[in-house]
Amino acid sequence: MIDARLRELVTLRMQQAAETLHEARILAGENTGRGAVSRAYYAMFYAVLALLATRGLGSSKHSGTIALFDREFVKVGDFPRTLSRSLHMAFEHRQQADYGELTPPDEMVVAGIIEEAETFVQSVATYMKGNGFLPLE
Length: 137
Description:
Layout: H1 4-29, H2 33-53, H3 62-74, H4 81-99, H5 107-130
Helix pairs in contact: 1-2, 1-5, 2-3, 2-4, 2-5, 3-4, 4-5
């Protein structure tokens, strides 16, 4: 049986992922690509935090969180490598958007990252429902 506090934490993290993805869409619609890329990445990041909570894992660094996702969920086959690549790509683009050159990201890049984030968050939600961490709708 899954602890109620764990279920609550997973629900909170997945709500954060959904809200942040919504923010990314709004920012993209307002032609603020840097913010949209950052929010799309964070949507994926919050979904990964939800996953890691189910295993009692965490990291103080984004790179460590991503490495744990790869080790605990991709390597064992719970998620396809394509989702790992999407997460790594979004992280790199977020780094560039937040700390890199002054040129905003291309509109097509922004749209692609948001689409990949949508797929990522939906895949994690499906996994969580299938494993009893979120209620089936």
